[in-house]
Design a protein that fits this description.
Order of helices and strands: EEHEEHHHH
CATH superfamily: 5' to 3' exonuclease, C-terminal subdomain
Oligomer: single chain
CATH class: Mainly Alpha
Structural class: alpha+beta
Helix content: 40-55%
Number of helices: 5
CATH architecture: Orthogonal Bundle
Number of domains: 1
Length: about 110
C-alpha cells in the first residue's frame, strides 16, 4: 500500500505495509511517519512505518543478502515486527517462507545472517 503525505504543500508518496496504512489517521489529520529513503541509480523511493521499530527492522533486513526493499516490506507486512523476530530466533523456516518471494534457501540464509 501507499500513503500520500503533504509536508508544507509538497506531497510525498510513501510505500507502506497495508497494516501500517490502516493505522494512519483520517485525511487532513497530522501524522508522524518514520521513513527510509531507498536510493538506486534510477529510482528514489520513500518507505514508511508507523514506528521507529519497524523502520529499524526494515533497515536491518536490507543488510541481509538477497533482501531488497520489496521483500523487506513484504516480510514486515506478512509477519509483523514481533512475528519476524520470533521466526528468526526460533529458526522458523516455514514461517519465513510464508512471505511471498522468500524460498527455503533464502529463509535459511536470513536466519543465519540475522
Amino acid at each position: 500500500g501507499s500513503a500520500l503525505v503533504d509536508v508544507g504543500g509538497v506531497a510525498y508518496e510513501i510505500l507502506m505495509a497495508p497494516n501500517d496504512v490502516g493505522d494512519l489517521p483520517s485525511v487532513g489529520e497530522e501524522v508522524v511517519v518514520h521513513t527510509h529513503l531507498y536510493v538506486r541509480e534510477d529510482v528514489q523511493v520513500l518507505y514508511g512505518f508507523t514506528d521507529a521499530t519497524g523502520r529499524n527492522l526494515f533497515r536491518t533486513l536490507l543488510g541481509a543478502s538477497g533482501v531488497g526493499p520489496k521483500i523487506a516490506l513484504g516480510m514486515l507486512a506478512t509477519l509483523g515486527a514481533d512475528g519476524l523476530r520470533a521466526a528468526v530466533v526460533t529458526d522458523d523456516v516455514a514461517g519465513l517462507t510464508a512471505v511471498p518471494g522468500i524460498g527455503t534457501r533464502t529463509a535459511q540464509k536470513l536466519i543465519l545472517e540475522l
